[in-house]
Design a protein that fits this description.
Strand order of the largest sheet: 1-13-12-4-11-10-7
Shape: globular
Helix content: 25-40%
Number of helices: 9
Number of strands: 13
Largest sheet: 7 strands, mixed
CATH topology: Rossmann fold
CATH architecture: 3-Layer(aba) Sandwich
CATH superfamily: P-loop containing nucleotide triphosphate hydrolases
CATH class: Alpha Beta
Order of helices and strands: EEEEHEEHEHEEHHEHEHEEHH
Number of domains: 1
Radius of gyration: 20 Å
């Protein structure tokens, strides 16, 4: 998919298992690098010296039990929270995201399981939300509806969605998996560099889950870096290139999926005991 903008015409208690060779795929420059990230809420440590990289064309599965710090780390990458210490580099440049708008301006898109699309908005308006295409007629600006619908149709046709009768239908008419697929495809089309997916297969059927996982894999093939957060290890493992396991706000393990089996990953996660202090800010 070719990125296309829509501008206006006017302008721990356990040992850490970390394979450093798995931190970055050979020959691929990291899109985002997190170094020594710490986040505190009062005296409670939500994240402690977290290092993580995500490179273009790879899917990083971010896993861990409730209270491990996954949500806090995602919110820092997305600009919702700022770390107390540590550094973030985006394509080699030191950055500090003060808001989600800052992160999005760099090409970081987050797709949340229940907030992928606006339910009452039609599909083509959802696809171009905040990226509308306009033309001027005298002093007035008019939406390029025909062109926007054509682009939207071209992008969605490749998804094989069953419930699209018209691009004018509301997003609420789609299944959960279809909404996720549309949101991911939208991010790819508009040139996202880093895609963060928060439990994208939650409450989906087997068929919908398979479709969403295919869309995730295709996004990585387009060169995006993908962070896939989920507690369903059987969903994360097949599509991930690397796994980062958080435990009590620390990186407990980091490895390529070829180095450990799904069963070994399950055993690593199962050994973790939730930390009540961290769970307050999961």
């Amino acid at each position: 998919m070719t990125p296309m903008a829509g501008p206006l015409e006017d302008g721990s208690s356990h040992d850490t298992i970390t394979d450093t060779s798995a931190q970055q795929p050979v020959g691929s420059a990291p899109i985002v690098e997190l170094v020594g990230i710490c986040k505190y809420y009062g005296n409670n440590a939500a994240l402690q010296s977290v290092d993580m990289t995500v490179s273009g064309g790879e899917v990083v599965g971010l896993v861990g039990d409730n209270g491990s710090g996954k949500s806090t780390l995602v919110k820092i990458m997305a600009g919702y929270h700022q770390p107390n210490s540590g550094s973030i580099r985006f394509r080699g440049e030191a950055v500090s995201f003060k808001s989600p708008a800052d992160a999005r301006a760099r090409g970081i898109e987050v797709v949340y399981q229940d907030l992928a699309l606006i339910e009452d908005l039609c599909l083509w308006r959802n696809f171009f939300l905040k990226r509308e295409m306009w033309r001027r007629i005298g002093p007035m600006r008019v939406l390029r509806k025909g062109q926007m619908m054509e682009v939207c149709r071209e992008q969605l046709d490749g998804l094989g969605l069953l419930h699209i009768r018209s691009l004018d239908q509301a997003a609420s008419s789609l299944s959960g998996g279809e909404k996720q697929s549309v949101a991911i495809t939208r991010a790819v089309h508009f040139g996202a560099s880093l895609l963060i997916l928060d439990e994208p297969t939650a409450a989906l059927s087997v068929r919908e889950t398979e479709n969403v996982l295919k869309v995730i894999a295709n996004a990585a093939k387009e060169g995006l870096g993908v962070v896939y957060i989920d507690h369903r290890l059987d969903h994360v493992y097949p599509v991930a290139d690397r796994i980062v396991l958080l435990e009590h706000g620390r990186v407990a393990a980091s490895f390529t999926t070829g180095e450990k089996s799904l069963q070994e990953l399950r055993e690593l996660v199962a050994r973790v005991r939730p930390d009540p202090q961290v769970m307050r800010h999961r």
